[in-house]
Sequence to fold (153 residues):
Amino acid sequence: MSGASGRVLVVDDSEVIRQLIRVNLELEGFQVVTAADGAECLEVVRRVRPDVVTLDVVMPRLDGLRTAARLRAVPETSRLPIGIVSACTPADLERGASVGVDGYLGKPFDPADLVALVWRLMALRDAGGPDRRDGFAYGFGDGSAGFRSQRTE
Fold:
């Protein structure tokens, strides 16, 4: 695998979901590294320096939203594009926006939407990271096809 498209760190406590995401992203040329929870994510992110991180919300030890907040608090990872891939409640989405998450994809998801989410996160990385963190740059998983904006006011 070339990894020419970029390195994605996939964080989910379900091994099945991690493998599903891995396969779909590797088919698109991404290099994929995985972690089983937020605590492991923080260790892995220092070692592998991913271009993008996807996080589940509900995980043991350290959940996805607290992990995102910790990534935002460190200068080296403060502009790292982060997407939530999870069955989120509206409160989770609001908390995600408040800690600087860049997008979300609801579970269950269409693999094409997963790939689109990661490409959009990569575009943020290529642009030097998002300039504003006042809500999601984009979101998926609302049952409609394609991209939709998800801004919180």
In short: The radius of gyration is 14 Å. Confidence is low (pLDDT under 50) at residues 132-138, 140-153.
